Amino acid sequence: MRKLFVIGIGAGDPDQVTLRAVAALGQAEVFFVIGKGESKRELVDVRSAILTAHATQPHQIVTIADPPRERTVATTPDYRDVVEDWHERRAELLEAAFARTEGVGAILVWGDPSLYDSTLRMVERVLARGAVSFDYEVVPGITSAQALAARHRIVLHEIGEPVHITTGRRVREEGVAAGQSTLVMLDGECSFTQVPGNDLHIWWAAYLGMPDEVLIEGPLRQVEERIVRRRNELRERKGWIMDIYLLRSRR
């Protein structure tokens, strides 16, 4: 049966690629890359650098254009329906690409495939459709959450306490629980500015592991304007941004 690797490649630093990931990269003959458009060409360049360093045998790169979300929350109130529709169209494209190629395949995933990434759901959809058959293996990677903690030299949670991992959308809808460490991903609207209270501390980072990496931390109300301003500057200059942050009540 044909084999597919789903490989976590870390938050952006080529040195974060694990030895297990290097071994999987060395076995792959076809790499499926989901492109995000020319404005995010830099993300493809990072993947290319990883392949140049670690893909040790001749291989083919198949680029799949990421389909736009034809439905939005504005037109379809149920967010889950919007995402399910997008995942289905992604699965159709991967199925078509897989069907017209041969050999061991691989998909490179930012961070780790288990955390706010749709690749595994997409792969399962392809298998469920039944047009192509294959076995697949997941290779874990360094997450942006781990990279954030390492770069700021912090522990993500207090002693004996949990850490809540959520999205900017959920923070805007639900806020932040008192006394809880909250790790926020996928926040395109600086949702930390909408969180009430004066006792929160923030550890923020953008482009973790990349040459343009930026770190800002401090009492939220004191540094939030600086983060928003810096974030807007970076997005305007590069055309895209990937950031993450931790919020925690100060004791």
Structural write-up:
- The protein contains seven helices and ten strands.
- By secondary structure, it is α/β, with parallel strands linked by helices.
- The strands form two sheets. It has a five-stranded parallel sheet with strand order 3-2-4-1-5, sandwiched between helices. The protein has a five-stranded mixed sheet with strand order 6-7-10-8-9, with helices on both faces.
- The chain has two domains: 3-139, 3-Layer(aba) Sandwich (Cobalt-precorrin-4 Transmethylase, domain 1); 144-249, Tetrapyrrole methylase, C-terminal domain (Methyltransferase, Cobalt-precorrin-4 Transmethylase, Domain 2), CATH 3.30.950.
- β6, α6 and β7 (181-185) form a beta-alpha-beta unit.
- It has helices at residues 19-27, 41-54, 79-99, 119-129, 144-152, 168-174, 220-238; strands at 3-8, 30-35, 60-65, 105-109, 135-139, 163-167, 181-185, 200-206, 214-219, 243-249.
- The N and C termini lie far apart (56 Å).
- 36% of the residues lie in helices and 23% in strands.
List keywords for this structure.
single chain, 251 residues, alpha/beta, Cobalt-precorrin-4 Transmethylase, domain 1, 5-stranded parallel beta sheet, 5-stranded mixed beta sheet, 7 helices, 23% strand, globular, cobalamin biosynthesis, methyltransferase
